[in-house]
UniProtKB/TrEMBL annotation:
Transmembrane parts of this sequence: 12-30, 76-94
Keyword check for Kinase: yes
UniProt subcellular location: Membrane
Protein name, as recorded: histidine kinase
EC number(s) given by UniProt: 2.7.13.3
The keyword Phosphoprotein appears for this protein: yes
Highest taxon listed in the record's lineage: Bacteria
UniProtKB keywords: ATP-binding, Coiled coil, Kinase, Membrane, Nucleotide-binding, Phosphoprotein, Transferase, Transmembrane, Transmembrane helix, Two-component regulatory system
Catalytic reaction annotation: ATP + protein L-histidine = ADP + protein N-phospho-L-histidine
Record organism: Lysinibacillus pakistanensis
Residue ranges annotated for the Histidine kinase domain, each copy included: 159-375
Lineage: Bacteria, Bacillati, Bacillota, Bacilli, Bacillales
Coiled-coil ranges per UniProt: 129-156
Molecular function per GO: kinase activity
């Protein structure tokens, strides 16, 4: 921070030295020319002439007044003149100093302007110019990110509103048929009831996603940590997701080093793994294997979920952990989510002091969660 002001301090010191030099030269010039130099006689004659004509003094009285006022108080007049000269020079120098604040003020005002031009300040304020441009770029990026997030949120609301309307319309239609056709065959009635129940479950899921959005925006993450057996948790996870794996012929293989424990909030960490695993299942090829691996390296525990499927484009890979981002906005209403799963997982992992990342190639996609070891 001190080095930032080095150039400005040097410039101000040079200006102060210049003021002192100018004052000394001016004082010497006044003393040499006006008091003891070539202008002394014309000045004395002018003063005596003034006393004779204006003050009505005789020549000798005017000459004596000049001697008492000027010649006997030469040092006082010299000091007074020098002080006045310093004040004048200091005033103009102060005006030069205040221009720096003027330039900074213009730079601060430029932060409010929506312009692609960088803020420019004098060379001695280069450090302030860089900082203002960093702030300007940061504010512009935040505004852009907020606008994009708001747009994605609005799109999400539209998606969910449409998705809710679809199962609701089906439920109302099938219930109307059941109500109107009292003598409907039992087999057909059971079919309609089953479809209505499925649509009801889908409607419940979408409504829960609306609540999820509200909780994610308003609720801070509070952790209740305990020692967790990671092998047991991941094995249980694979068993619980078997109904989702089976329809596509997928399998989950868990490979975890024994006795790996992590100090974390069990419920929230399970939610992280659930969200990542759901994502892996949704985007894996049919009849493929999802590998869940965990190992301890130094002071970190790394848990990875590897699946084979369509690669995630690099430009989307950097955004999948953002709130309300859907990797595929065209996914069907039966599989499309609110775009919150990975964002929530990221928040929870960060609250634990860890990181979450993803890499994707044509062959596989790997999500890795890194957490501190049990202390």
């Amino acid at each position: 921070m001190k080095n930032d002001f080095g150039k400005l301090k040097r410039k101000i010191m040079l200006q102060i030295l210049l003021i002192l030099v100018l004052a000394l030269i001016s004082g010497y010039w006044i003393s040499s020319l006006l008091i003891d130099g070539v202008l002394q006689a014309p000045f004395a004659d002018a003063f005596i002439h003034f006393c004779e004509n204006v003050l009505q003094l005789d020549f000798y009285a005017a000459q004596k007044a000049y001697s008492i006022i000027f010649q006997q108080n030469k040092q006082l007049w010299l000091a007074t003149g020098l002080i006045l000269l310093l004040l004048v020079i200091f005033y103009f120098a102060l005006s030069r100093f205040t221009k720096y604040f003027y330039h900074i003020s213009i730079g601060v005002n430029s932060l409010l302007e929506e312009s692609d031009k960088d803020i420019q300040l004098p060379a001695e304020l280069e450090f302030m110019e860089k900082k203002l441009n960093v702030v300007k770029n940061t504010l512009e990026k935040r505004a852009k990110d907020a606008q994009e997030a708001e747009q994605r949120k609005n799109d999400l609301v539209v998606y969910l509103a449409h998705d809710i309307k679809t199962p609701l319309t089906s439920i109302m239609g099938y219930l109307s048929l059941l109500d109107e056709a009292k003598d409907m065959p039992l087999e057909q009635k059971e079919k309609y009831v089953k479809v209505t129940l499925e649509k009801s479950y889908r409607l419940e899921q979408l409504i829960n996603e609306f609540f999820e959005i509200t909780r994610f925006n308003l609720q801070s993450i509070i952790l209740d940590k305990e020692a967790i057996n990671l092998n047991y948790m991941l094995m249980q996870l694979a068993d619980e997701f078997y109904p989702l794996l089976a329809p596509k012929g997928q399998q989950a293989i868990v490979n975890v080093e024994e006795d790996i424990k992590v100090f974390a909030d069990a419920n929230k960490l399970a939610r992280v793994f659930n969200n990542i695993f759901k994502n892996a299942i949704a985007y894996s090829d049919k009849n493929s294997i999802i590998n869940i691996h965990a190992e301890k390296q130094n002071d970190q525990i790394h848990i990875s979920f590897t699946n084979k499927g369509k690669a995630i484009p690099p430009q989307k890979l950097t955004m999948i952990f953002e709130k309300f981002y859907r990797l595929d906005s065209s996914r069907s209403t039966q599989t499309g989510g609110a775009g919150l799963g990975l964002a929530i997982a990221n928040e929870i992992v960060q609250a634990h002091g860890g990181t979450i990342s993803a890499i994707s190639t044509d062959e596989k996609t790997v999500f890795t969660v890194s957490l501190p070891t049990l202390s």
